[in-house]
Write a structure and sequence with these properties.
- The complex is a heterotrimer of chains A (161), B (422) and C (361).
- Chain B has 422 residues and is mainly α.
- Chain B contains 23 helices and no strands.
- Chain C contains 14 helices and 4 strands.
- A two-stranded antiparallel sheet of chain C has the order 1-2.
- In chain C, a hairpin with a 2-residue loop joins strand 3 and strand 4.
- The relative contact order of chain C is 0.13.
- The chains are: A alpha+beta (161), B mainly alpha (422), C mainly alpha (361).
- Chains in contact: A-B, A-C, B-C.
- At the A-C interface, helix 2 of A face helix 4, helix 5 and helix 11 of C.
Chain lengths: 161, 422, 361
Amino acid sequence: MATSEHQLPEVKRPSATTLPRRGFVEALLGTGFLATAAAFIYPVLRYFVPPQAVDLGGDSVVAAKVGDLKPNSGKIFRFGSRPGLLILSADGQYRAMSAVCTHLSCTVQYRPDLKEVWCACHNGKYGLDGRNISGPPPRPLLAYDVQVRGDEIYVSQRREG
Amino acid sequence: MAMLQSKSHASAFPRCLLATSLLLLAASLSHAQTKNSCLDCHSALPAQLGVTQEQFSHDVHEQKGLTCVSCHGGDPSSDDPAQAMSRKAGWKGPIERRQIPQLCGSCHSNPDFMRRYNPGLRTDQLAQYHTSVHGKRLAAGDSKVAVCTDCHGVHDLRAPNDPQSTVYATNVAKTCSHCHSDAHTMAGYKIPTDQYAKYTTSVHSQALMVRGDLSAPTCTTCHGNHGAAPPGVASVPQVCSTCHVFQAQMYEKSSHKAAFDSAKLPGCVVCHENHAIAHPTDAKLGTGPGAVCMQCHTPGDRCDQAREQILSQSTQLDTAIKAADQELALAEASGMEVSEARLGQNEARDALTKARVAVHSFQVKEVSANVQAGLKTANKDLAAGQQAMVERNHRRIGLGLSLLAIAIVLPGLWLYIGKIEK
Amino acid sequence: MTVLQNVGNWLSERLEWEELIAPLKKKTVPRHRLSYWYFLGGITLFLFIIQVLTGILLLLYYRPGASEAFESVQYIMTQVQFGWLIRSIHSWSANLMIFTAFAHMFSVLFLKAYRKPRELTWVTGVVLLVLVMGFGFSGYLLPWNTLAFFATKVGTDIAGQVPVIGHPIMVFLRGGEEVTGATLTRFFGFHVAVLPGLVFLLLVIHLLFVQRQGMSVPPRVEKEWEENPAARRELKFFPNFALRELMAWYVGLGVLGALAALFPWNLGVKADLFASAPAGIKPEWYFLFMFQALKLIPSKIWFMDGEVVGILTCALVGLLWMLLPFFESDRKARSQHWITGISVFALIFVVTMSVYGYVAK
């Protein structure tokens, strides 16, 4: 790109006759600098504003608050990019598992009348520990760990070993 | 270092193998306790009579401590064939085909005996076999039909939960096809031989063989195993309903139930076939190829109208889901984050699955309820995708403005340089 | 204006400002048909400044740690206003910076700017390039996505192949035998503390050298000027050259903004420690030429492990590369030719291997 122009600025430097009137260049530059500074600073200032949501969780999420669930009921929560199911069983124990049916990936739900996890798509049933009991599901639901810390119920990926 | 390691591995390997085989040998010797002269000769004999130690070691019976004598009798302690295989020593000779079920049953039908080895194992196989088409024909003198060993194998008979067993879930269909797909063998029975070929095209075979879903049905799931017989016309819905509970419940309550029963039509099979059960699509409800309704119904009647509505509704939901998917994919490709809506799409797909299940009620309103719920979600997701695209356009406008600002500075600088260098 | 001048005067009384900037005022830049290439170093510096600024901004929301890193980047991209822009600029600028750094290096090579007395400028430059690639390698892992996870696994594995010291180095890099959350913590530390410190130090030295020695004039131009002294031209560094550089920076800013807005950097899928590696895993493009070259080496060379030979060769070539200026003797003609030959070969090698690595499965 450089080889054709032997002397950098001379070639394109505006000649005296076409030189804009005094002050124009400064005004142009000033406007440009201000505009770019604004384009630079505005996003950064907006970036400083803390968003509404505190975070997106991680391997462990707050699935619910203590008291959100009545005994013998369940709740779907977001676990990363998939739904999870939190159950408070009739005997007062929290259990959590993936809510993605192992048959055709429908979202399962807790059935208080059956005291079982149930998939509405093809009537698949799972036990409270996630084991497939009847219907088409080929595999158990992935069980998660539940911890109650303060009044928050944390669900986390189960670690092996 | 890696090289050294791999070298030491390589030299350790044969030594390890040697040790294992010695151990195995010792174990099998101590297991057999006494001498077994049968294999000495038979391991050297050609196919029909040949059984090697290696082969027999896979046999579940060998692993439980049974030997050749357990089935064939004779005296394995003698090296003299005449003595070893003398009738006096209880040698039974080759077992005749028609005797096989009885022979196996002598142990397998004896609960007291089986409890010692596997208390959970059922002991009704022989009784079931007698009720099967195979068993009945055998009793009638047809020795071509399947007996225990035809399916389970012999001398290297593995437990059914061993993936190499001939009766392991994924191998059953192949095993049945040995006879049932052989036109020569089946010649006298006047039944088709294309079941296996058809089954391999089915959604069930896909689930079992491709997805590895061991709960998916194979031949024996619908026909029974020891009591194998085709399910009668009347019992088809019962058989299918062991897995397809919802569809069966809806069908039971529907008008089709009575109509099919009175016409002696085999329920589910009427629309879905028996062996070549394909993954059902909305095309089944249409009028084009693969459509089923209009084979019986008259165009324009009340049922045809209902069909039309059910079809258009589920197509509508399907289209809506695809449209939302497309929009979300577009937004994602533009770098927008739409994982929340992506998650919502699962719900919409659930609704479509439920709507397709509800088709078995043959009621427009049942299908409609699911479709409406799904449409609501899909449209919400579509809106989210569109919103993301609007946001993307905002970004581009912002970019345009910033580039404009830069575009003002550049000539400004150029002119300024020109000015100070003049 | 008067207020500003007063403040300026007040400061200059105390800092002796004038003396500080005096060399800058006197500094000139040779002006010839190849002057354009002088901009590359400045653009690299500009991109580095962008990296520091956006990096600091990202630190406001980023959380190192296997269970949170991916989510926090996702959070920056989706929840934080203009977070997508900041992160995309950081990623794009990183890649552009490595590209301009390479371009800068080859321009210095072809313009022969590394010659005596500028050997140490070259040495610091090569070390800076290595550090910048270290920035790339460590930063790539921080979003904790699948591709980064496996790229790190493969990359540290290669380091582990070196005899004797390889394994301890690998364990040091990974914070254990395997790539885990501990690796992420370490890489984060390297990326935001260790490397910036080292780069800053070397950058200062590098720039001081450039300031002290001025810009090199390519031998051919020098010769022309010797024959015809009237043709010799110079440009004042400040403001004439600086303003031109500023234009280049502005163009860079525009390109960066456009890339970030039109092609936001992808986040990918969260790393799963137990997942099997996706097929055809490749490192970032700036490691591709080494990666591909290593792949082409047969697994056994004579009695040695091919990979080990490859890695050692790589390290040796890198070292010789850094010491390149010292091989150029004063007896010009001959040594100059073979160094130019090597440079051409190196450029062709890097480009071909990169393209081959990109195309190869």
